């Protein structure tokens, strides 16, 4: 079986790369499980000071794999694992991000993307809602600005993602932009990083503890609905869904 997560390490920073380019790094059950295992290894390894989450190919993550979707509880577990990881997680994005991929992005502590990257909460266009990914997204993004993109599924660029609070920065050379960030993490005491991250993520984790069961049930209900069946079929057949007004 081909590895779904690439792993490299440089000076105490472990880079995990989503590596399922055939599905545009969509969140399949297998990819979610593989990423969760890799993160667990990083959490336990004293040689890892921080984690960079990135991708191969032109897409960071296309959202849920409609042919092999993860269990909602597993996706919630993965997002919470990133937020609660005792080491900083930095997102490095040079490609496109859709739907569930924005949940991964929002779960990270620091995020940088190239200007060519595009973003979209496409759930409403296939008949569902950004339910589970709201657990990390809503506490970290501007709700008024976010409403437009949640409700319309429109694409937006990296500069807009910074304005929304989904990205820390955008830069033509993402690696150059992240170099001082990673240097700073390497210079920081491991226990101090853990406790400082705990301060920063407390409100996000409170949202998980309060809302995860409700949003997981909502996601399961919507994905089993007639609208979702039509929306997913239309997406796979590359046609407009029946409700589209033209």
Automatic annotation (TrEMBL):
GO molecular function, one term: catalytic activity
Pfam family, one: ECH_1
InterPro entries per record: ClpP/crotonase-like_dom_sf, Enoyl-CoA_hydra/iso, Enoyl-CoA_hydra_C, Enoyl-CoA_Hydratase/Isomerase
PANTHER family in the record: ENOYL-COA HYDRATASE, POLYKETIDE BIOSYNTHESIS ENOYL-COA HYDRATASE PKSH-RELATED
Family: Belongs to the enoyl-CoA hydratase/isomerase family.
Record-given protein name: Enoyl-CoA hydratase
């Amino acid at each position: 079986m081909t590895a779904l997560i690439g792993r490299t390490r440089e000076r105490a920073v472990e880079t995990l790369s989503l590596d399922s380019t055939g599905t545009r790094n969509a969140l399949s059950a297998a990819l979610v499980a593989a990423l969760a295992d890799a993160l667990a290894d990083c959490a336990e390894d004293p040689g890892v000071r921080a984690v960079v989450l990135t991708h191969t190919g032109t897409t960071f993550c296309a959202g849920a794999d409609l042919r092999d979707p993860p269990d909602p509880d597993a996706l919630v577990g993965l997002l919470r694992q990133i937020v609660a990881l005792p080491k900083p997680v930095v997102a490095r994005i040079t490609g496109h991000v859709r739907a569930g991929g924005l949940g991964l992005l929002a779960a990270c502590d620091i995020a940088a993307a190239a200007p060519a990257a595009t973003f979209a909460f496409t759930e409403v266009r296939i008949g569902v809602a950004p339910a589970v990914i709201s657990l990390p997204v809503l506490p970290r993004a501007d709700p008024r600005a976010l409403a437009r993109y949640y409700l319309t599924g429109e694409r937006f660029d990296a500069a807009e993602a910074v304005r929304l609070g989904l990205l820390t920065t955008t830069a033509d050379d993402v690696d150059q932009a992240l170099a001082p960030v990673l240097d700073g993490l390497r210079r920081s005491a491991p226990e101090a990083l853990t406790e400082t991250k705990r301060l920063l993520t407390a409100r996000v984790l409170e949202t998980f503890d309060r809302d995860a069961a409700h949003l997981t049930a909502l996601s399961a209900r919507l994905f089993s609905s007639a609208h979702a069946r039509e929306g997913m079929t239309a997406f796979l057949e590359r046609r407009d869904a029946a409700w589209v007004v033209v």
